[in-house]
Amino acid sequence: MEESTRDRSEEFCNFQPPGPILTFNNISYVVNVRRALCVRGQEKEILRGVSGMMKPGMNAILGPTGSGKTSLLDVLASRKDPRGFKRGQVLLNGRLVESNFNLQSAYVVQDDILMGTLTVRENLEFSANLRLSRKEYTFEEKQQKVNRVINELGLQDCANTKIGTELIRGVSGGERKRCSIGMELITSPTLLFLDEPTTGLDANTASSIMCLLHMLSRNGRTIIFSIHQPRYSIYRLFDYITLMSKGDIIYQGPGGETINYFKHLGYECELYNNPADFFLDVINGAISSCNENPSPDVEITSLTTVDPSTENNLLVHHFRQSTYYHQINKELKSLTVPDVSKFSIKIKSSYATPFYYQLYIMCGRTIKNLLRNPYTSFAQVFMMIFFGILNGLIYYQIPYTMPEALQNRIGAFFFLIINQVFGNLSAVEIFIEEKALFIHEKASGYYRTSAYFLSKIFADLLPNRIVPVLTLGAISYFMMGLKLDVGSFFMFCLTLSLTSLSAVSMAFLVSASVSIFATANALIAIPYVFMMVFGGFLVNLDGMLLWLSWLKWISIFRYGLNALTINELKGQTFYMNSTAIPGESYMIQQGIDYSTWGFWQNEFALVCIMTIFLFLAFIQLLRMNKWK
Q1: Best CATH choice for the domain 2-32+44-115+187-335 from the list 3.40.50.300, 3.40.1190.20, 3.60.10.10, 3.40.1000.10
Q2: pLDDT tens across 2-19, in order?
Q3: pTM of this prediction?
Q4: Buried b / exposed e across 450-473, counting CB within 10 Å, b at 16+?
């Protein structure tokens, strides 16, 4: 075991791949822990003034659960909320991390976040189109880049296979992971971050992925990743190891020297024990040191002052007295920027492509996803056809004799409005389903939030909500025998469409504000019910309490029902025992303004409701926390 690790160390000393050097100095990060909803949270320190260096090659961050390894990785990748930083700085090749850091580096998340309805090639092409500048790369060059990545990652056999969803059988777990890595390799980053790349993979697939990363590290890349308990065949690929315990670093140095370091501290790794498991046992206290006085070979007395908070942590104390720590500090001092008063990562994002091109690519992906997902496209159309036929059969050829003439028409309109409002409850999942994907792509600099939001409006909301509504309107209108006038028919369809869009915009706001589908359903159902009550059909609004009657002004039901009523009854004549009754008499009785402006003010109100809620939904997407 010792000979093999020594051979690995010598092998790396003889081969120093070119690549960027990432250093971090005195990083302190805290999170706000709130034990109850109304109780003020307390700060908990996750990283305790850690310093170190990540050199070209394979840099592994190991440690037990809760040790801070993922937090350190996210700090280095500029993926942590800057409000939690107390002090410290991150340098890339001796310079402060710049605003376009997401274009210089790449980050592969632990859970493979990919669009499941797209193929492997289509996902890679999506990354290439958005993350490679149109000024520097032609379409053909982007295709060549995609093909090169596919060949490099061994994805030729599954290049035209869909990633897979709950309903679509797709590629294997290892192929998904390689595709996730390929999405980031499109930009040819020299700095690659991975959060536990072997999670959820079998032993053979995990080894394959890590061997792939090892090969990539030999091509001039600095690869930094967190990992929990790798097998020995994976562990021996690590060029540098950072061991963490409770937010502190207890070792950082060459992977081939780790076992000897702990041996000098009195911790003996058995011959057939996995070093990664051995280190975790040492950190967790399962193995005790048999040497009270560590060897002077790894100790430099009085080198540094031990922080009081770590005095009882012998592992931290020993590392801060070691030659490794001394060497790292020496190199850091030559690179440290004078201003260390606050964390130095700039969080302004940069994009490789302009807004209009991002919108074009996003609309294309959204349309593909829509067409390949029957539950969000064809099912909506079939549902509207069903309700259109049902509504037409219930109110088939409504007569002009009273009282059926008015009662059935108003009842049909109320049924249609209910269908347009509650039939769009499915819209609450639109952002919830893609939240993880949106946050990852937004943080990686794929596109602007505005491009993503508008793509949902142009390529999802309009065709997915308007086309089914027009189908419903055409079926219901003629089956019910409403006013045979072209203008009235189009106004009927316009009113149903605006009602549907207003209801969807509310669902968009709720979807962008919460993360749990059940919570979103409850939150959207409550305002829908209130709007229905104050719509003017179930309750006479003039007889309501004054402090409640104002709610009628924000009721989608009221505006939609009034507009349909005016459109149908204005100019119509009904009969009761041979007595002609104008349709306007009913609207006067209900206090409905049936003038031209009276009709259009209802349409205008629906447009305003839709616009306001869509704007608030966009604000919520902007505010959505992209930081971990």
Answers
A1: 3.40.50.300
A2: 444 444 444 444 445 577
A3: 0.83
A4: ebbbbbbbebbbebbbbebbebbb
